[in-house]
Amino acid sequence: MSRTLAILGATGLVGRTMLSVLEQRGFPLDDLRLLASPRGAGRTLSFRGREIAVQAVGPESFVGVDIALFAVKNPIARQWAPVAQAAGAVVIDNSSAYRYDPAVPLIVPEVNGDILDTRPTLIANPNCSAAPLVVALGALRGMATLERLIVSTYQSVSGAGSDALEELDRGIRGGLESAPPRRTDGSPAFAFNCIPHIDRFEDNGYTREEMKVVWEVRKILGTSELPVTVTAVRVPVRVGHAAAVHAIFDAPITPQAARERWAASPGIEVVDDPAQARYPMPLDVEGRDPVLIGRVRTDLCDRNGLAFFVVSDNLRKGAALNAVQIAERLPRAPAVVR
Amino acid sequence: MSRTLAILGATGLVGRTMLSVLEQRGFPLDDLRLLASPRGAGRTLSFRGREIAVQAVGPESFVGVDIALFAVKNPIARQWAPVAQAAGAVVIDNSSAYRYDPAVPLIVPEVNGDILDTRPTLIANPNCSAAPLVVALGALRGMATLERLIVSTYQSVSGAGSDALEELDRGIRGGLESAPPRRTDGSPAFAFNCIPHIDRFEDNGYTREEMKVVWEVRKILGTSELPVTVTAVRVPVRVGHAAAVHAIFDAPITPQAARERWAASPGIEVVDDPAQARYPMPLDVEGRDPVLIGRVRTDLCDRNGLAFFVVSDNLRKGAALNAVQIAERLPRAPAVVR
Asked: Which of A144, A251, A337, B171 has the fewest CB atoms within 10 Å of its CB?
């Protein structure tokens, strides 16, 4: 059975990371179609030693495609997902367009990959801060029930795309000798700054990014009433999102028990040896797959509480890697379906 | 009555900021003595248009001194505080050497400055993350009782001193073209990184920095049993510490009521207008006195909870400014005491 995969948004940061991840993991495919907006089309990208031309996405783009990875903004995802589905492709969408639709599964394979056995044709890939968080929390299921979650994020600039990375660099260079210049659009410099504003503000005073983490943690863990409070902050880091997590359970989980469970769980690496000054940091995750967990400690004021620090490559587990892992986990369609 | 002030550790980042703050605030003094280790002695520093030579600290350094501001590490503070007190000086110590001594008041003037009326001769100045936090929380007293506090910090590199700032710059320059180099001592780069390790690790898995905030918030607010959990993280910012604060009270405080109280409180500036993308950021506080508070919102999962973001110049309210404010608040000693 031959398999054709398409990437829509192949020229962006996440799209290019999807390409790397597919190549590194030896994803089984017979044909790869790279798609982008007319602006991105015409370039070529390298995959497994050959150059593939990026095509402008169009009504015929998904004919014959088995799996379509989408790495585009919401309106583009909404425009092309029905087209790809109608053409028979399974769509794995990295935008937030469908994440909160009850009919669309939101998947982190380690946590709720079994939903894929129901053969959905549209699957949402989670937010870059939500994915590593649910990997960490999902692995603790069965040890105690999570009752409360308070998270503060330290999110890298690559989460805002390649233009944002250029803004960071421009700000850093300008900021070496004086105050970092504001961004081209007039918003505050990323460089030497912490910006508590990611995505747009909601009427409740939270940012959309903060609400995404709330909604997505609940949906992926299947705990629709879980109290979650998030503060999302952009920091002058290129790649790697971190989160300081305070989790309260209905019973104690000792740091050692949590570490052992995490160490035995797929997609997680425990980096937690204070005596050797070992803990997770963004500089250690770029280009790496695992979610790093460390600084694990009991809440001194609540024996049912556990505090820890989670770091992962936001372009990988937070985006491209998780999407490819979903593709890997898809049940092979019987050949007769076509 | 003439007044002589000394700064021990005058050549360091905090010492030099003390000098600026004294000058900017027109602190009333007749003589200023600048003291440092033999290594720092011999330099001159400018104050009110004249150059003052920095002297090596010695047994006679505090004779005739009314107020001694200490901006040195713990062992140096422990060595010279008794000498300065014996010479008749009131010591205001920025180290943590005496902060947890029940006999030594730990003061943030806006919150517990009334303790100074008891005429202590040794006063501790709080940690750079604790000070702005208690300014924010102290202002809300009387509206409801604080029952739980969870804080994640975003701490600038200047909190680690001027050598650390040079390490940040070296890391940034090296990191513009490739991976940022590790620090001279082999520890991880500040540049493009988040490091969940400030001060040494305690046996309980928390860092000393995290425990300082716990202990100091309790001591300054006078709430010795308050449950406080902290994650302290170094971020690649030069000046300005931020904190994401989740505070649970015994009754609701609306964001609007909190903003109004804060706006009317000394030392606080409310910067909280999401519609205009206004919120506190480190780049906006360097060289400024007020504690900025914004991103104020009700905890969506607990009507008694309030989430907010606090940013201040760690060299000012977190260190030099608070020390000078303590000095300003000291009752004038009757002349007969000498």
From this structure: A337
Q: How many CA atoms lie within 13 A of B213 on its CB side?
A: 30
- Does the pLDDT of residue A29 top 80, yes or no? yes
Tens digit of each residue's pLDDT (9 = 90 or more) over B68-117:
999 999 999 999 999 999 999 999 999 999 999 999 999 999 999 999 99
Residues in chain A closer than 8 A to B192 (CB atoms): 236-238, 282-283
Determine, for residues B236 and A238 on separate chains, whether the beta-carbon distance falls below 8 Å: no
**Residue contacts between A and B (CB atoms, under 8 Å):** 168
Nearest to B197 among A154, A240, A279 (CB): A279
Q: What is the CATH number of domain B130-313?
A: 3.30.360.10
Chain B residue whose CA is closest to A293: B196
Using only C-alpha atoms, chain A has a radius of gyration, in whole angstroms, of 20
Out of A194, A197, A241, A246, pick the active-site residue.
Answer: A241
Separation of alpha carbons B313 and B319, rounded Å: 9
In 10 A of CB B148, how many CB atoms? 19
DSSP state of B129: T
* Residue of A170, A199, A235 to mutate, testing the B interface (most B Cβ within 10 Å of its Cβ): A235
Q: Which fold has domain A130-314?
A: Dihydrodipicolinate Reductase; domain 2 (3.30.360)
Which chain A residues are within 8 Å of B282, Cβ to Cβ? 192-194
- The token duo for B316 is 């000012």
Q: Which residue of B has its CA nearest to A271?
A: B196
Structure tokens at A33: 């179609």
pLDDT tier, B1 (very low <50, low <70, confident <90, very high otherwise)? low
* DSSP structure class, residue B160: G
In chain B, the residue whose alpha carbon lies closest to the alpha carbon of A208 is: B274
Task: Give the model confidence (pLDDT) of B204-234 as tens digits.
Answer: 999 999 999 999 999 999 999 999 999 999 9
10 Å CB burial of residue A231 (0-12, 13-18, 19+) is buried
pTM of the model: 0.96
Question: Considering CB atoms only, which of B197, B228, B281 is closest to A193?
Answer: B281
- Cβ contact B282–A194 (<8 Å): yes
Domain B4-125+320-337 has CATH 3.40.50.720: yes
B312-325 b/e with 16+ CB inside 10 Å = b? bbbbbbbbbbbbbb
Q: If residue A111 lies in a helix (H) or strand (E), which one and from where to where?
A: helix A109-112
Among the partner residues A201, A244, A283, nearest to B180 by beta-carbon distance: A283
User: Under 8 Å CB-to-CB from A317, ≥6 apart: which residues?
Assistant: A131, A132, A135, A267, A289, A290, A291
**What DSSP state is assigned to residue B103?**
T
Domain boundaries defined on chain A: 4-126+320-337, 130-314
What distance in Å separates the CA atoms of residue B122 and residue A245, rounded to the nearest whole number?
38
| Complex ipTM | 0.95
Tell me if A281 and B195 make a contact (CB, 8 A cut-off): yes
Amino acid sitting at position A101: D
Note the helical H segments in A187-305.
Answer: 208-221, 255-263
Sort B117 into a burial class: Cβ within 10 Å, 0-12 / 13-18 / 19+. Answer: exposed
Give the chain A residue whose CA is nearest to the CA of B256: A205
Q: Which of B238, B246, B277 sits opposite A187 (nearest CB)?
A: B277
CATH number for the segment(s) A4-126+320-337: 3.40.50.720
Is A241 among the catalytic positions?
yes
Tell me how far apart the alpha carbons of residues A201 and A208 are, in angstroms, rounded to a whole number: 6
* β-pairing verdict for B305-312 and B291-298: antiparallel
